[in-house]
Amino acid sequence: MSNGKSIITGFIVGGVISAATALLVTPTSGRELRQQIKEQGLEWKNTVDDIIQDGLRLKDQIAKTSKEGVALINELTEEMKTSIEEWKEAIEPHQENIHGYLEEIESSIKDLENKLQNQK
User: Fold this and answer.
1) Residue 92 to residue 86: CA distance in whole angstroms
2) Beta carbons of 37 and 28 less than 8 angstroms apart
């Protein structure tokens, strides 16, 4: 926000300098010059107010977007945890079957080895 304050300070200083310059070099009457300075001052004030409002809206939008991002990440994390749990539950019965098949295959191989040794 320091950068924003520098910009606003720059606008104010620029406005004061331009008003002083206008006083020194303008060949208009004092009344007209005062009116022009007043109008320019109001214009600068409106510009600064608009910049401040835009900055506040941007700050609010960034805060809102950050909150939405955090909520989205939390939701995604929960969905992933749920999906992983469902996947584990779906795979678990198959793991037991695979272990059983491997034990049967191992037993069959041992039986074949025993038969081969007995035939010799």
Assistant:
1) 10
2) no
Tens of pLDDT, residues 24-64: 676 667 787 778 778 888 988 898 899 899 989 999 999 99
pTM: 0.45
What would the DSSP string read from start to end of 31-61?
HHHHHHHHHHHHHHHHHHHHHHHHHHHHHHH
**DSSP states along 55-94:** HHHHHHHHHHHHHHHHHHHHHHHHHHHHHHHHHHHHHHHH
State which amino acid sits at residue 45.
K
In whole angstroms, how large is the CA radius of gyration of the chain?
40
